[in-house]
Amino acid sequence: MHERVIFDVTTAGYHDWWIPCLFVGVTGALAAMMLAGRRRSPRYAAAMPVGAIVTFAAIMLFGAFTWFIDGYRDYRRMRSELLSGHYETVDGVITNFVPGGFGDHPLESFTVAGHDYWYSFSILTPGYHRPHWLGGPLRDGLHVRIADVHGQIARLEVLEQ
Question: Residue 7: which of 141, 112, 152, 123 has the closest Cα?
Fold first, then answer.
């Protein structure tokens, strides 16, 4: 039997880094627009003191930083548990496959050897979460081996004859 690795958290890397970066970019753009508005309109300047702009930017940047650290911590934890062998191997044929819809309604889900899995492209997780509509290869009847770390897919292999 030949195995083909579809996903492995140790080689995938931390792939959700761009979201906090987007927050930083949007925050910078909004703060710049607010400051530019202050220069053009005395009424706007009175309604939007610099302290409010700085407070807004600080809160948004703190949120982005927290989001990044939290996501990276989850990634490092899953990667570490996989590398140290602290996972459950689930081997079997996919049943009850429900392809995820565009916009995550419904979430993609399936069962393997009595273990239920569900995921979505928009639910940020370090584990496998590529739905069928984005080219995910999963379907009913496919023989897979999963490295399960706390109910998430840390490694996914398709077993072929």
Answer: 152
> Is the confidence at residue 38, as pLDDT, over 90?
no
The torsion region of residue 107 among left (phi > 0), alpha (psi -120 to 50) and beta comes to beta
Q: Tell me the per-residue pLDDT of 111-145, one tens digit each, with 9 for 90 and over.
A: 999 999 999 888 888 999 999 988 899 999 999 99
pTM of the complete model: 0.80
Largest CA distance in the chain: 74
Q: pLDDT band at 35, cuts 50/70/90?
A: confident
